From TrEMBL:
GO terms for biological process: mitochondrial protein processing; mitochondrial proton-transporting ATP synthase complex assembly. The gene is ATP23_0. GO terms for molecular function: metal ion binding; metalloendopeptidase activity. It is an enzyme of class 3 (hydrolase). Keywords: Hydrolase, Metal-binding, Metalloprotease, Protease. Its EC number is 3.4.24.-. Signal peptide: none annotated. Belongs to the peptidase M76 family. Residues 9-18 have a biased composition (Low complexity). Residues 1-21 are annotated as: Disordered. It comes from Quercus suber. This is Mitochondrial inner membrane protease ATP23.
Length: 195
């Protein structure tokens, strides 16, 4: 999602993997299965309609030393951290989340990942539109709130990601998220509405 020197901002959700995850080969097979899901097909199609052609190696399994599930890097594509993946649903979620970042990067043309507001906006959209904060996922994470869980989850996850950006302090991340919240949360492109 960014040019150097930002190492891995915009990384996907933190993995709950506890058994060392999957091998790169197993994860690559899981990515191939993910590419056949309707939402991934939809996002890839809209990326291409926006003028961004995704090559065969745009989404790849890698071994990650950091506690992240994946990430998007402009010019390189999407990485899925095989050693933090256990099940197909985790891979699907990372791919969807990161494809939304790729879509934002493609359609904006001037997205600056070092800009806290730009980064926060894409994280808000990815958290909201990818299903990362579906109430069942939140229950599995130990969050039991029934009303307002989705927005609370998106805010929590945006903060975690934007704070990891070396250009954004905690205060800057919070200010940026609040400044862009309404417009970015309500921007559901390329969907007609939030899935």
């Amino acid at each position: 999602m960014a040019e150097e020197p930002i190492p891995e901002p915009g990384s996907g959700p933190i993995s709950s993997a506890s058994n060392g995850g999957r091998s790169i080969e197993e994860c690559q097979s899981m990515i191939q299965r993910s590419l056949r899901t309707p939402i991934v097909k939809f996002l890839r199609e809209h990326l291409e309609k926006s003028g961004c052609v995704l090559g065969d190696k745009f989404i790849k399994a890698v071994h990650c030393n950091k506690q992240i599930s994946g990430g998007y890097v402009r010019g390189e594509g999407i990485m899925v951290c095989s050693n933090h993946m256990n099940i197909q649903d985790e891979v699907n979620q990372v791919v969807i989340h990161e494809l939304i970042h790729a879509y934002d990067d493609c359609r904006a043309g001037n997205l600056d990942w070092a800009n806290c507001a730009h980064h926060a906006c894409s994280e808000i959209r990815a958290g909201h539109l990818s299903g990362d904060c579906h109430y069942k996922r939140e229950l599995l994470r130990g969050y039991m709130k029934l009303r307002g869980h989705e927005q609370d989850c998106v805010r929590r996850r945006v903060m975690k990601s934007v704070i990891a950006n070396p250009y954004c302090s905690e205060a800057a991340a919070k200010d940026a998220m609040e400044a862009v919240w309404d417009i970015c949360y309500n921007d559901t492109q390329p969907f007609d509405r939030a899935p």
